[in-house]
């Protein structure tokens, strides 16, 4: 698969906190269809709110 990286969202805060500036920007960009795919190293780095709540962001 070929991917084109269109952005990187980095917050140096806990994944337990959803009010992170770059996390919120990523959600805004996702709603505006600026990308098709999100790659993360580990699900707990994305969110620690449980799998159902995490998937609700996507």
Please provide a written account of the structure.
With 58 residues, the chain is an all-alpha fold. It has a domain at 21-57. Helices cover 38% and strands 0% of the residues. The chain has three helices and no strands. The protein starts with 20 loop residues before the first helix and ends with a helix.
Keywords:
3 helices; mainly alpha; 58 residues; 0% strand; single chain; 38% helix
- The assigned structural class equals mainly alpha
Count of individual helical segments: 3
Assembly state = single chain
Strand content: under 5%
The largest pleated sheet is described as: none
What is the mean pLDDT?
A: 79
Number of strands: 0
Shape: globular
Compute the gyration radius: what is it? 11 Å
Give, in order, the helices and strands. HHH
Question: How far apart, in Å, are the first and last alpha carbons?
Answer: 21 Å
Q: Helicity, in percent?
A: 25-40%
Unreliable runs, pLDDT <50, ≥5 residues?
none
